[in-house]
Structures are given as C-alpha cells and as structure tokens.
Amino acid sequence: MVATATALGAPAERREGRLKVTGVARYAAEHPLPGRAQAWPVPAAIARGRVTAIDATAALAMPGVLAVLTHENAPRITEPDDPILAVLQNPDVPHRGWFVALVVAESLEAARAGAAAVRVEYAEEPFDVTLTPDHPDAYEPETANGGHPGRREHGHPEKSFGAAEVRLDVAYRVPPLHNHPMEPHTSTAQWAADRLTVYTSSQGGSDVRDALAALFELPAERITVVSEHVGGGFGSKGTARPDVVLAVMAARATGRPVTVALTRRYLPAVVGHRAPTLHRLRLGAGSDGRLTSLTHEVATCTSRIKEFVEQAAVPARVMYAAPNSLTAHRVVRLDVPSPSWMRAPGECPGMYALESAMDELAEALGMDPVELRAVNEPDREPDSGKPFSSRHLVDCLREGARRFDWARRDPRLRARAEGPLLIGTGVAAATYPVLVQPSTAQARALPDGAFEVRVNATDIGTGARTVLAQVAADALGVPLERVRIEVGNSDLPAASLAGGSSGTASWGWAVHEACVRLAARLADHAGPPPGAGLSARADTAGQADAESSYARHAFGAHFAEVGVDTVTGEVRVRRMLGVFAAGRILNPRTARSQFVGGMIMGLGMALTETSTMDAAFGDFAEPDLASYHVPAHADVPAVEAHWIDEDDGHLNPMGSKGIGEIGIVGAAAAVGNAVHHATGVRFRELPLTPDRVLEGLAG
C-alpha cells in the first residue's frame, strides 16, 4: 500500500501492465465483433494526377470479397477541416500512396488479395518532391505549427553579426523522419441503427468523435469512440487519420462491423511524418562567449493539400540571451504526403541544429561547451520578455557534468583512442514548452469506500492511468488502491488529446479539481455515501487555457560518449545521460521510462533513422522497419535519466511539466557533438551512418 501522503510522487507500478504482458489488453483490431469484416486499401501508384478508371471486376469475383469502395460509390462525407480525411471523395491524387479504393472482405487475406486485383488507370501530371534551400516556390508562412509567428526579429541581427568578434555561419540538414508506433494505425467501426461505435488507435478519442460527427453529419452523442489501449503514436495518432474514416465508410456500406488495419508500409504516406528541415545558423559572439547576434532560418516543405510548417526555429527564441536575433521559416508546397506531428515537433530538429552550432561556437572560442551555455543564460524569455515560471537549465548542465565526470574530459579533438576506435564526448541542452488544455473529469465516492474517477484521457503507453490515480488519491487524501480510473472512451467526460506533453497536466488538473470538490462534499456529508454514491465534476475551461504572465518551459541537458570505428565507420554510443528540470515528478518510475524512451529515440535520429524521398518516383524509399532503422536492444547503451525537482507554482495544481517529449530534444546533438570530439570532423547532416563517417574521415 502506498501511504496517503506519498501517493503523488511515489514510483507506483503501471495499472495496466499485467493486462498488456498477458495479452488481455485489447487494441483496436482485437475486438471480436460478430460478423466483422476486414478491409484493405489500394494506394495510388502515381505521384500526382487523377484516376481515370477503376476496374473492380476481378476483385469482386474473388472468394470472400464483399465490396470495393472507390470515389464513384463510397459514402459521401462533408468537406473536412483536415484535407487528409477526404478519402474516396474524388478522383484527384495529390501524392503517391493516397488511397484510391478500399476492398472489404470476409478475411484479411481475401481483402489483401482483392486489393491486388483492383486495376486503376491514371492521368499522370508533372510533380516535384524535392526540397532545396532556394526553391523558387518557397514562401514565408504567417504562422508555423502551434500558432507561432513564422518570423520574429529583435534588434539588428545582420549588423551585429557583421560586427561580432567571433562569427559562425553553418548549415544543417535533418531528413524526413517517421513515427512508426508499434501498433500501426487501426480502426474498427460498427453501426447499430443510427449509433456508431468505433474502436481506434488514437491519441484523442474526443477529437475523433467530433471529427466523425462533422464528416458523417451525426450528433456527437450518437458516436462512441473507444481507445482504451493504444500501442504508441508519437504524434501520428494525434488526430483522426484516414483509417478511421475508411472503417466507418465500409461499415456503413456493408452493414457489418469492419476493421481497417494499415500495413506498416502504408504509414509513411498517409499518417504524417516529420518533414525535412534545412537549417542555417549564424551566431555572433564576443571573445567572452556572450552572444551578440543569433539567426536561425529554416526551410521545410508541406503538401499541396495542407499547410504544416515544422516550427524548428522557435526554440532559438527561448534558449539564449542574444540582444539581436532573427528566427524565420520558409516553406514550399510539394507533391508529398502531408507532414504532421512527430515527437517534439519543432523543438527536436531545431535544437539539433542550434545545439550543434553552439558546440561549433564553443570550439571557435576555445571555450568549454557547458560554460558557453551557462554564460548565455537569459534572465527572461528572450522573445516575449516574460519571466520564466522556473528555469534550471544551468543546474541541469552542472549536475549532468558532475554525474558524467565532464571535468576529466580532454577538450582536444581526437585525443582519445582505443585501437581503431576514436572516443569522444558531447553535450547539448534541451527545452520543451509547458502546454495545457481544458478537460473535464468526474469523481465519485462509492458506499464500499472506493473512489471512481472518469475522464476520457488516452493512455498511449505513458502510464496515464497510474499517475491520474495518484493525482486523485492525493487530492482525496486516501490510499492509492482505493481509487479506480476509467479512461479511453468518448462517453466519459471529454478530455484533450494526448499530445504536446500536455496530457497529465491537462487531465490531472481536471481530476484534481473534481476530487477536491468531492472531498468537500464528503466533509459535509455524515456517514457513508448513499447507494448511488456522491459525485463531483470539474471543467477547467477558462483556467487551463488562460493566458499566463510567465514563460513556462521544461529544460534539460544531455551528455553522450561515443566510440567511432575508423575501419568500418560505425558509431556506437557507449553511454547517455540526461538531467531534466520538468516541474514536480509525479511518478519516478513512469517518468524515467518516458525520459529514457525519448533519449533512445534521439539516439535513433542521430545514428540510424532516415527516410529518402525518391525524386523520380515520388515516394519514400524506406517504408518499413526492414529499411527504416530504429534502435534495437544491441544499439542502446547504459542510459541514465535524472531530474531536478522544481517547485513551480505557476503551472497547475500538481506543479508538473510535460516529460514525454523533452527526452528526445537535444539528444541527437549531444551524440553528434561527441562524434565531432572523437573524430575532429564536423558532420552536419543526419543520420551519422557508416558511409558518411568513412567519407568524412577520409577527408
């Protein structure tokens, strides 16, 4: 039993852990509905153009095939706010992989065979899928993702850069990256008269319900979206995706429950990805290391049908004191799949470039990289001028340096070798904003002494059930085991999606308020609760989304040691260390898992993960995990995550900041900086694959 006083902050085990490891937890494709059919989509085989004819005769003649939906016969939907959901509505093909048909059959095997038998003819049009720094169609967007201004300028960055004692002008390239959650995007839909039930792998069931209500012109109260267990998402499941729309269409057309489970090879084209980003950094500084000018310009791309601008220059508006600065984005519309959120959008690629440039500046100055960052610590957020609610970046750097034994580091390049291995160490800073959204929750006291908390939160593997139970137990003043949590169903009180590291802060705020109100009711009530129990409800609209007079961010520091094989070009990370300042840590066990998971994802970004857009074919060349390489157990060294507890009263009732994404921010830069320290070669394009390393070593 966890003591009442320590329910919040205790390393409680995941409540759903046993269900998952024993196979009892059911995911979107695993609900055994009577008469359920399976569906398989047909992707477009051209990069741009129109469908001129579809012949489904052979497919319909195959055993088990029930229907073939195309733009000619699919159920009509209203024009969606998100254009990627307008599937099977017209013959247009905006990019390769866009779905042009859906085969519904008695079995998955029959659906797949039927999809292969569909014949599609196209009128192909010229296309462009190549991002270049000087693309003639590039433009400056008004805003980037998250509503950030596309451009911000303070002082005179050009003039001050020209006058700086030490100047650095460098470019970095981050390739397209893909989310690849363990559970691919899957939805099962069932109509019962005028009611719709959907089981979907989503990070936000309430948002999916609202999207379906609009698309199919159905009152939201007649739709139930269940996302009880979700096998990862990393942003790609943040909003409704084509699989859920196709499942609902197919169920309506056939009158049977239908599952659409996307094969992994289809994911890069239809569920979003991290767009490529081209970075130019110009840093000017005095001989003491203090920045006088900071310019971070980013070029990226979006699709023809939807503008999504990776806000990669935004972190530079937060990190360092520079009286003169320019941060700007340029974007070009290409014939590519629509980019979307991927773990720490903006901050992840932006901080890779910024923290690599800071390392280069430290070398140019002959200054320790940790000290350079400390010297440029701002008193207020540089862009807004707001005071920080809390900022312990320097503390993270100092504590990380102590734990990593940074003081014993030889700053000379290529100073340490073990046979053919060159050994090096690197450091990088991290930041991520504090995001909170309004949510609702209900708490009920039952006659048997138990408490029930209901909120449509989504547990995507982060341990949300567990930490919300801890929040409730703390607010009620009861032992943790007396609290039951219900999540993952849109019939529950509406809650925000699991994204932007905002889940616990958003849902926890509502749960806390509901439990505080329930505790007050119980204090005024004599005896046990009545048969139906006593309940209280909370809605944090107007509080959670209120404008803050403080700049609220989490911060951290990454340290990495690598060994670079001069014979094979292989880079091995020997150890990684992260120290974070992310408010109050509500559950050390699940928090450490989130930090470490992000750091490992950053390791993959640095060394193995890349996606190549084939300019002639208009498609991603690495569409599965056989070719898109994520870290395996053998790639992951000893990874340590630590934190500095912050007492920040300007956040939420729990005093917490998001921790799901800051672990990846800066991790790739720390590895890249370590490789430079080991080899003396500066690599400015990710990932650091053996061929690139060997080419760099060869000079």
Main features:
five-stranded mixed sheet; 699 residues; alpha+beta
Secondary structure topology:
Layout lengths: L16 H5 L15 E7 L5 E7 L1 H4 L4 E6 L21 E2 L5 E7 L2 H10 L1 E6 L18 E2 L3 E2 L1 E4 L2 H7 L2 E9 L11 E7 L2 E6 L4 H11 L7 E4 L15 H13 L3 E4 L5 H4 L6 E9 L5 E13 L21 E10 L12 H19 L3 H7 L17 H12 L12 E2 L2 E13 L6 E6 L5 E4 L9 H13 L6 E4 L16 H21 L10 E6 L13 E13 L5 E11 L6 H20 L5 E2 L4 E2 L17 E6 L23 H13 L10 H8 L2
Helix pairs in contact: 8-14, 11-12, 13-14
Brief synopsis:
The chain is α+β, with helices and mostly antiparallel strands and 699 residues long.
How would you describe what is shown here?
The chain is an alpha+beta fold. 24% of the residues lie in helices and 25% in strands. It is built from 15 helices and 28 strands. The protein has a seven-stranded mixed beta sheet with strand order 3-5-1-14-11-12-13, with helices on both faces. The longest helix is centred in the C-terminal third of the chain and has 21 residues, at 503-523. The chain starts with 16 loop residues before the first helix and ends with a helix.
